[in-house]
Amino acid sequence: MTPQELLDLYAAGEVNFKGVALIAADLMRADLIGANLQGADLASSNFTLAFLTRVNLQQANLMRAQLAGANLNQAVLIKANLADANLHGATLQGSDLRSAQLPLADLMDANLVEADLRNVDLSGANLTGACLRGANFRQEQRNYAANLRGANLRHADLEGANLRGADLTNVNLRQANLAFTSLRGAILQGADLAGACLQGANLSDANLSDVNLIGADLSDVSAQRVNLARSNLNQSNLNSSRFAEASFSQASLVGATLQRAQLNRADLSRSDFSRANLREASLVEAYLGRTNLTEADLTEAVLTRAELSSTNLLSACLAGATMPDGSIHT
């Protein structure tokens, strides 16, 4: 079948093109709304600016396809192969991409609002400036989660997305919007989140070790048992966040603000909190072995039963703080 024959059949009312082979076909600006292309081989085909709303592309081969500016809203792309495909500026709002393969795909400025991205492979993909508000990356089962390893999500909008259990190892999320996202149990080891907004996010049980969080907004996050070992949180905002039993071992939080933060039973050993703002913070039973609190502000902080025997408190302000023995510092 030729591209023109397919278009003529579609114009005549035919919508079932299951399993069709149209390798390197030119279907630029084609209107195939609602067509069934399940299992079709469309590798290297040109669908630039095409209208593909509600198209069934389940298990289709779209490797290296050109889909820039295409409309794929509510399309079915379950297990589709979109490796190295060009989806720059495409709109996939509400599309179903479960278990789809998109390694090295270009999704720059793409619209993936409320897309289903469970178990998707986006390793090495470019999602710079993409909008993923409300997208679902939720882990389906143990060791079978969305893979975004090495992806570029700089300036991406992921507000409210469900990234539970997702693999975001070494991902570029500089200045991305992750407000109110669920990252529970996610792996972000080595990721770059400098200047990112994570306000109200759920980071409980996530791995954020060796992460760049300089200047990031982590205010009001829920981060019980999160691993932030060796991460850089200098000048970050952690006000009113909940870090019970979290690990900040060897992390750097120079000049960070942690007003009213909850750090009960957290491991802060060998970390650098110099010049940090910990006013009214709760550090009940926290471990501060060799922690640097030089010039930190701990006004009215609660340090009940905290381990401070080897902590550096040089020039720290402890006015009104509750000390490990229960006394109030004057």
Question: Can you give a write-up of this model?
Answer:
With 330 residues, the chain is mostly loops. Helix content is 3%, strand content 0%. It has one helix and no strands. The chain starts with a helix and ends in a 319-residue tail after the last helix. The model has no long low-confidence stretch (mean pLDDT 96).
What is the gist of this entry?
This protein is rod-shaped.
Task: Name the descriptors.
single chain; 330 residues; little secondary structure; 3% helix; 0% strand; rod-shaped
Write the layout of secondary structure elements.
Elements: H1 3-11
Overall body shape:
rod-shaped
Average pLDDT, to the nearest integer?
Answer: 96
Radius of gyration computed on alpha carbons? 24 Å
H/E series: H
Proportion of residues in helical segments: under 10%
Structural class by helix and strand composition: little secondary structure
Helical stretch count?
1
